[in-house]
Amino acid sequence: MKTLSVEQQIANLRPALGIAGQINRWFLGAAVLGAIASLLFWNPLPLTFSLFFVIVGFSRRKLGPNLIAAISAFDKEAPSWGEVSITITRWNADNRYHGIVRETGYPNWKYQFIPQGWRPVPGTYPAKIWRTGIDGRPILTVVQEGIIIPTGDARVESDSIEN
Q1: Membrane-spanning residues where (predicted)?
Q2: Potential cystine with 140: which of 70, 75, 106, 146 (Cβ 3.0-4.6 Å)?
Q3: How confident is the model at residue 21 (pLDDT cuts 50, 70, 90)?
Q4: In terms of C-beta density within 10 A (0-12 exposed, 13-18 middle, 19 or more buried), how is residue 83 classed?
């Protein structure tokens, strides 16, 4: 897989902004339609698809809003500097990517992410950090190789101490 530049990775996500905020509703709507089809045709197969759509819809409900906020922050705000530690765990046949963002004056924030256009390697890297909200959650972290956007809510690492 060829690694894309940070600018190319951001550019590749821009077309998705139109549907990103609503994608979980589409999944949940498809689940409702599948349940209705299952009742109408008295067949369990559409119900199986409905279950899948419900799981995906609820598990990724924060991804769309986080994507919109990350691109907006990238375009309009100045980043600060810190570091991110990347870890990779293997679950079933998938890799799960986790980042812990560290910056002076903030607690350490931990979240899961899906790399887009690059292949993360475990380690600690200098990073540009864009934050959002009153609590200063990181919404976008950029290392030299790529972008890191949380797939869900970032949470304070339990052993984190305010720097």
Answers
A1: 26-58
A2: 70
A3: low
A4: middle
